[in-house]
From TrEMBL, chain A:
Keywords: Prenyltransferase, Repeat, Transferase
Pfam annotation, one family: PPTA
Domain of life, source organism: Eukaryota
Gene Ontology CC entries for this record: Rab-protein geranylgeranyltransferase complex
A GO MF label: Rab geranylgeranyltransferase activity
Family, similarity comment: Belongs to the protein prenyltransferase subunit alpha family.
Enzyme class, broadest EC rank: transferase
Gene Ontology biological-process annotations: prenylation
Function: Catalyzes the transfer of a geranyl-geranyl moiety from geranyl-geranyl pyrophosphate to cysteines occuring in specific C-terminal amino acid sequences.
Protein name, as recorded: Geranylgeranyl transferase type-2 subunit alpha
Species annotation: Linum tenue
Reactions mediated catalytically: geranylgeranyl diphosphate + L-cysteinyl-[protein] = S-geranylgeranyl-L-cysteinyl-[protein] + diphosphate
Record EC number: 2.5.1.60
Coiled coil: none
From TrEMBL, chain B:
Pfam families: Prenyltrans
Known role: Catalyzes the transfer of a geranylgeranyl moiety from geranylgeranyl diphosphate to both cysteines of proteins with the C-terminal sequence -XXCC, -XCXC and -CCXX.
GO cellular component, one term: Rab-protein geranylgeranyltransferase complex
Protein name: Geranylgeranyl transferase type-2 subunit beta
Sorted UniProt keywords: Metal-binding, Prenyltransferase, Repeat, Transferase, Zinc
PANTHER family recorded: GERANYLGERANYL TRANSFERASE TYPE BETA SUBUNIT, GERANYLGERANYL TRANSFERASE TYPE-2 SUBUNIT BETA 1-RELATED
Reactions mediated catalytically: geranylgeranyl diphosphate + L-cysteinyl-[protein] = S-geranylgeranyl-L-cysteinyl-[protein] + diphosphate
CDD domains: GGTase-II
A Gene Ontology molecular function term of the record: Rab geranylgeranyltransferase activity
Annotated organism of origin: Linum tenue
Cofactors named for this entry: Zn(2+)
Length: 690, 315
């Protein structure tokens, strides 16, 4: 019990306490009887006041008083003096109750209910609030009540902002005041109130204000969260923009001449193995309204059907950062000698809107070429792979040759240039630079290191077309934080991973150095796909997906991943290795449901099924979300109830190869279940399926 | 057997009114949207395994901690003459939920007489369909959820007129999607959670306007990633729990900035290892026999519940 020491009661105290309890019970019993019988006499009402003074939490008594007030008001409608005295009495009862417990929900609500009847001077209310806030500046009831009174009094946001300033001046460590300041400022900026139209000026002022709090006591959290919000406001991109796409602008796509089940790529041109290939649009923030009216796709041949664009989000059926559609190329249309120019025009008509309500107003155009592959693969050869093995000796370093300008061109053009970004960034870069210099003075403490790391990362986010700077320093800072503050290790690790991936994907040289040919003795080198290997990097979180939309084969083995959220953007993925990570459930692999091209999957040597109750299921995504269609559970599968999570994630996948060994869920019956679930499966845990 | 209310000081009642879901996440479903195979029944192998793990964890601590907790809970029930128990009579329905769920987590549910409890619960129901905190008191959404949860605990939801109760709850939704606690109109996101949780247990989530309910909760989201009780209200761990849980049940978790909120929440852990509810506030809940909120403070059933539940999640 809060604030009560552990002590056994002395016998004489016990008797006194028992008598007190008995008296209280008698009062309560009488009150309940009055309430049941709707008795609102003066004595009865006074009884309730007495009770509420002892126990302001007795909610029924507040209800009773409201009924009594209603009845009494009805009886003296015409007499304003009586009305006032009735309401005054209520306010007094509330004050008495609040003195007993100034956190009583019932008391505060009763006061609001009385005020809404149009009584009490507002100055009096503000005076009362000042008293309460002097006693406890963090009492959120008082702050809520203040908001209520300010609205009722129609006090301006500017005046209330000044009040928060006063509170902060009295005590810098007042999270409640900073919080309220953030609410008021957001409103003022949103409605572009005079004096609050220049984000540059407003934010500069606020940074100065919070600086004192931060340097007075670096352990005090109050200012730090406010500072984090200011940083977000500084770098947040106002406009929804297209950041990257698949295909990349200017690329050359070759399609198989005939209907292969799965083919392999020649690296002479970028090649996609199916006739049904994806278009992917990657935005800088979540948007809705991407459809065939707002995005037009024109090819040399007619696609009679309107394309259906889907948001790649497992939680939201309306909006997402990444949208995709599939072009189905009709056989009859294509001639192997022609190259077809495709143009994708994004946002030339209105309709795309960010989830924060900002319209998409910077149209983009992406052009690429499509042509048919002239001949099928070496005739007589089975186009299918043997089993993929993710071993080091199966990979040979990719040697770019002069005949392959396309991959290099592709990697050069991964990020779409948006003019609007370069003009806005001057004041933002200046602020971040200033703040970074200031906080370098605090590098000996946890929050200083974290803030500098965040500032340097923010700086890079302002310049998406340039190579990120200070990566080494940021990585070092996070490494130091992992040691300095081990209770938040995972948070720092995740951020470290994100920066590492930014660094790796920041240049074409870096990406090329991680591209490998997969060697299979059954195939000539002409036919081997290109694999991006991001294994053994100790990464715990994935990011930089906008740089990876082109990837078909990906090795993420031997890392510390617990989730692959975001990977659904990589619509071309056909071979994926996730072995030796820290996946604990199939729900963590839910993004796989969106990878329609996935054929080869290795999730061996993880921790799937190690917890009998999946405690992360609700954290990743509720299975009750609106976007989930109903599943047909009436399938004659063995143990589909036991393995329903695996069923849900894997059921529609056309996997040809799957590795699941080395997980807690691994068992003979699970493998039997998998074979039934995936009729296309040829290899399961290295063994050929009958 | 009458169940005495838990011992709480009135000044901390704010924290007491955050009912937690039962069997989270196993039992929570919504009607119509998605059909999943029935979750493993209570005490099906995986759950029993989990409970066994908890028990063995507690035993392995070197003391028969579980038995001590049980003894404490039953003792609370018997202390009718205390002043504290009189002052908390009105929220006995909550106390029943905390005490019984704790017993359940310790697999000692059978030490109480479920029939007596259920009989008492039904006496607390009003003609409006809502439940009061105790016999003779007014109905409120808070106690309605506790009643549903206790009945679910005993697998006795069938004693309810589901239509009546769900209509009461749904009737408390306002135009803007928010929920009032009762007919007197107090609005708080706690009540949004209670309505959504309660109706999901009863499988009648479609009786409310889910989209508006979600929109209201979003309007209470703050710049630090957390949630308050009303729009503009300061972030508080208890409110965050309610809002995040409500968004989880309604499939709207994408509105939560996981990284931002995650950071705010893990900053609740203070040097002593305890957790506070807001920045620069005191931490709560340390364990010592029955569980108190801080070492040297008196134990109470509310914190016993959270302490045991916390150990369960950690196990």
């Amino acid at each position: 019990m809060h604030g009560r020491p552990r002590k056994p009661l002395k016998p004489v105290d016990e008797a006194a306490v028992a008598a007190k309890a008995e008296k209280l019970r008698a009062l309560q019993s009488e009150f309940l009887s009055n309430h049941q019988n709707k008795i609102y006499s003066k004595e009865a009402v006074e009884l309730s006041a007495k009770l509420l003074e002892i126990n302001p939490e007795l909610y029924t008594a507040w209800n009773y008083r409201k009924l009594a007030v209603q009845q009494n008001l009805a009886q003296c409608e015409s007499d304003p003096e009586s009305v006032n005295s009735i309401l005054d009495e209520e306010l007094k009862v509330v004050e008495n109750a609040l003195r007993q417990n100034f956190k009583s929900y019932g008391a505060w609500h009763h006061r609001k209910w009385v005020l809404e009847k149009g009584h009490s001077s507002m100055d009096k209310e503000l005076g009362l609030l000042d008293k309460f806030q002097a006693m406890d500046a963090r009492n959120f009831h008082a702050w809520n009540y203040r908001r209520f009174v300010a609205a009722l009094m129609k006090r301006s946001d500017e005046d209330e902002l000044e009040h928060t300033q006063n509170m902060i001046d009295k005590n810098l460590s007042n999270y409640s005041a900073w919080h309220n300041r953030s609410v008021l400022l957001s409103n003022l900026m949103k409605k572009a109130a005079p004096g609050f139209t220049s984000k540059d000026e407003v934010l500069t002022r606020e940074y100065e204000l919070v600086r004192e709090a931060l340097f007075t006591d670096e352990d005090d959290q109050s200012g730090w969260f406010y500072h984090l919000w200011l940083l977000d406001q500084t770098v947040r991109s106002e406009f929804p923009l297209l950041v990257s796409s698949w295909p990349v602008e200017g690329s050359d796509i070759s399609l198989p001449a005939a209907d292969y089940l799965d083919g392999c790529a020649s690296m002479n041109v970028f090649h996609y193995s199916s006739r049904n290939f994806p278009l992917v649009l990657y935005f800088n923030q979540s948007v809705r309204g991407v459809n065939s009216s707002t995005v037009s796709v024109s090819c040399g041949f007619n696609l009679n059907i309107d394309l259906i664009w889907k948001p790649l989000s497992s939680t939201d059926s309306q909006s997402a950062k990444v949208w995709a559609t599939h072009l189905a190329i009709p056989d009859a249309e294509l001639h192997s000698s022609e190259a077809y120019q495709v143009e994708v025009k994004v946002g030339f008509s209105q309709g795309i809107v960010s989830t924060t309500g900002v319209a998409y107003s910077h149209p983009s155009q992406i052009s690429f070429q499509l042509h048919l592959q002239k001949t099928p693969l070496e005739s007589g050869q089975d186009s299918r792979f043997g089993r993929i093995q993710w071993k080091d000796d199966c990979f040979a370093v990719y040697e770019p040759g002069s005949a392959e300008p396309d991959l290099v061109n592709l990697l050069d053009n991964l990020t779409i240039k948006n003019e609007v970004e370069s003009t806005a960034s001057t004041w933002q870069a200046r602020i971040i630079d200033d703040e970074t210099n200031i906080f370098r003075d605090l590098l000996d403490c946890k929050i200083g290191k974290l803030t500098v790391a965040r500032l340097l990362t923010a700086y890079n986010s302002l310049r998406p077309l340039d190579k990120p700077v200070h990566c080494k320093e940021v990585l070092e800072l996070y490494s130091e934080l992992m040691k300095l503050d081990p209770s938040h290790y995972q948070y720092y690790k995740d951020n470290h991973s994100l920066v590492l991936l930014q660094q790796v994907t920041s240049s074409k040289e870096s990406l090329l150095s991680r591209c490998f040919h997969y060697r299979d003795s059954t195939l000539s080198t002409n036919g081997s796909p290109l694999c991006l290997r991001l294994n053994n990097l100790a990464i715990s979180q994935l990011g930089s997906f906008e740089k990876l939309l082109w990837v078909q084969m990906l090795d993420l083995s031997n890392n510390e991943l617990q989730s692959i959220e975001g990977l659904e953007a990589l619509q071309l993925l056909s071979q994926l290795c996730l072995s030796n990570n820290k996946f604990r459930s199939f729900t963590a692999l839910e993004s796989l449901r969106y990878l329609k091209s996935l054929k080869v999957l290795d999730i061996s040597q993880n921790e799937i099924g190690s917890h009998s109750i999946d405690t992360t299921r609700y954290l990743f995504r509720s299975p009750l979300s609106h976007s989930v269609g109903s599943c047909d559970w009436n399938i004659n599968y063995l143990s589909s109830e036991t393995y329903w999570e695996a069923f849900f994630v894997l059921k529609d996948m056309g996997l040809t190869q799957l590795d699941v060994a080395g997980n807690a869920i691994t068992s003979k019956s699970f493998n039997v279940f998998l074979e039934k679930l995936l009729p296309t499966l040829k290899w399961l845990d290295g063994v050929e399926v009958n | 057997m009458e169940f005495n209310p838990p011992l709480l000081t009135s000044s901390q009642r704010t924290l007491s009114l955050f009912p937690l879901p039962l069997h989270f996440p196993l039992e929570i479903r919504t009607a119509g949207e998605v059909e999943f195979p029935p979750p493993p029944k209570r005490h099906a192998p995986p759950l029993q395994q989990a409970l066994n793990t908890i028990e063995s964890t507690l035993v392995a601590m070197g003391e028969l901690a579980a038995d001590k907790h049980v003894k404490y809970i039953l003792a609370v029930e018997k202390r009718k003459d205390s002043f504290e128990s009189a002052v908390l009579e009105h929220l006995r329905m909550n106390g029943a939920y905390w005490g019984l769920t704790t017993l359940d987590l310790l697999d000692k549910r059978d030490v109480v007489d479920s029939n007596e409890i259920i009989e008492w619960i039904l006496k607390c129901q009003h003609e409006s369909g809502g439940f009061a905190g105790n016999i003779g008191h007014d109905p409120h959404i808070l106690y309605t959820l506790s009643a549903i949860q206790v009945l679910a605990l005993f697998d006795k939801l069938n004693v309810l007129d589901v239509d009546k109760v769900s209509t009461y709850i749904a009737g408390l939704q306002n135009e803007d999607g928010s929920f009032s606690g009762d007919i007197w109109g107090e609005v708080d996101t706690r009540f949004s959670y209670i309505a959504i949780c309660g109706l999901s247990i009863l499988k009648c989530l479609d009786k409310i306007n889910v989209e508006r309910a979600v929109n209201y909760i979003i309007s209470c989201r703050n710049v630090d990633g957390g949630f308050g009780c009303t729009p503009g209200g300061e972030s508080h761990a208890g409110q965050i729990f309610c809002c995040v849980a409500a968004l989880a049940i309604t499939g709207a978790l994408h509105y939560v900035d996981k990284d931002l909120l995650g950071w705010w929440l893990c900053e609740r852990q203070v040097k002593s290892g305890g957790l506070n509810g807001r920045p620069e506030k005191l931490p709560d809940d340390t364990e010592n026999g029955g569980i108190s909120d801080r070492p040297d403070d008196a134990v109470d059933i509310f914190h016993t519940y959270f302490g045991v539940a916390g150990k369960t999640v950690a196990a």
